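Quick one, T. Sequence first:
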Amino acid sequence: MREASVVEHGVAAHPHVSAADQASERRSQRPWLASYPPGVPAEIDVAGLGTLVDLFETSMSAFADRPAMFCFGSTMSYATLGRQARALAAWLRSQGLAKGDRVAIMLPNVPAYAVAIFGVLSAGGTVVNVNPLYTPREFAQQINDSGARFLIVLENFGATVAGALADVALDRVLLVGPGDGLGVKGRVINLASRHVRKAVPPFRLPEHLAVPFMAVLRRGSGMPQAAVTVAPADLAFLQYTGGTTGIAKAAMLSHRNIMANVEQSQVWFNSKDPSIRRCAVTALPLYHIFALTACFFQFMRNGGSCLLIPNPRDCDGMVKTLSRHRFTHLMGVNTLFNVLINHPKIDTVDFSNLDFVVGGGTAVQRAVAERWKALTGNTIVEGYGLSETSPVVSANPVGLKAFSGTIGFPLPSTEVSIRDLTGRPVPQGQPGEICVRGPQVMSGYWNRPDETARAMTPDGFFRTGDAAVMEPDGQIRIVDRMKDMILVSGFNVYPNEVEDVLAAHPGVLECAVVGAPSEDSGEMVVAHVVLKDPTVSTDALRAYARTQLTGYKVPRRVVLRDTLPKTNVGKVLRRVLRDETPQA
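Structure tokens:
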């Protein structure tokens, strides 16, 4: 029985206030509830969710004969995934892994990633996702900050580990081949990969440290099952964030955080036809929180499959893979959608089985969304989230007729408050910072109480750093990252708006807008553009912008480039562009 003083999502539970009155008060504080699709509840039952280990055990039993992963033309069933994950968990426990110990996973989208995740969690460990493209310095920083004892890494990136060994302390390093876990065909894939990888720098790890992943699974299969009790409040992930804007820090995400977001997404994105065997195109890296929750855990919960794309930078290979599979869902970022619609062989891909498509990670440009709709007949459902929120905060309803340009409504059990820099709510319709409270919000940053204090409001809201406007119906319209706002002669310019205009020009492939110092206006707008049509001039682009933007928003300078710098997920690195922009 809950105490009367407990506050649940901002509404005090009081013995003299009826349930109906409390529900009415919640709705007045959350106008978006009136716009919820039929059947979507205002709240989810957080108490009854269990853990990610419970999700694993339930799905491995209920869907044993179904395909869990498609990769390299091969299939991994739920039964195989379960058997291998339990073997890994047993081996880790035999090596002294204690509950709460951190295990770093440095893998792209290969089947062993799924084995590693469930194996570590089942053993009571905490997963530290590491970007495989990190340099030895970046790798060492994350290992040391997290205190990870074990590392599971693709052998392709062994040179990075070897280059950092003098600066880190690891108990064991498990070397993974890309085809590991896929049986005989997997061994063929590994041999082919090693042949192709001759240009990769050679590396050597001490024999006492390195062990092949498949050898671990063979040894673990004969060991007793890992006997450890995992609770919802236990730490599941140290999810590093902020590396593109400053020193990376780890969001502490519990089993409850992730399970809550899986449940929130389940009731919001429920498939139009539950009998559909779901298959999610998983091109975004699983070590990123968007794909981890939206593709992996969400589809594992429902007995769906992940079509793994190990290297989405290989656009030709990705399109060839898509052309050979029937898939029902696709989660992507603006860059991914843009690459696909501009690929010369995209007409070989069958989009007729798509149930819905979700865009996130960064703003989807309207021009890209409209071209996607024309190509596939499917409207991109845009959502919003962060590593600190497991990640989904809000989303548009499934079944949109046209791209909305908003990030939709807060999910069930989620509160969003738009506030000024002092932490006070702004009047409706005015821009302010998105602040979030709900069961998916992290408990804080790992070993950084000062950063945690700066990120949280006194009443328990997480400050996202993103600027937005809330519409009267509760729908949220992103303005931009607050730090990316450009101040021109005292007027606010939001890069997303300028980018949306330039991206609609038929001669533009992609673009990004940043601010640069200016003696006469404080800052000026600078557009970095990759052209689709090389005959388009910078003057023509500025003239086009003037037809749709007021004068101070028009780029004073247009820089033509061959490419834009991006993160591994496809987000444009505006920080890099600011550093590269010549001063006025």
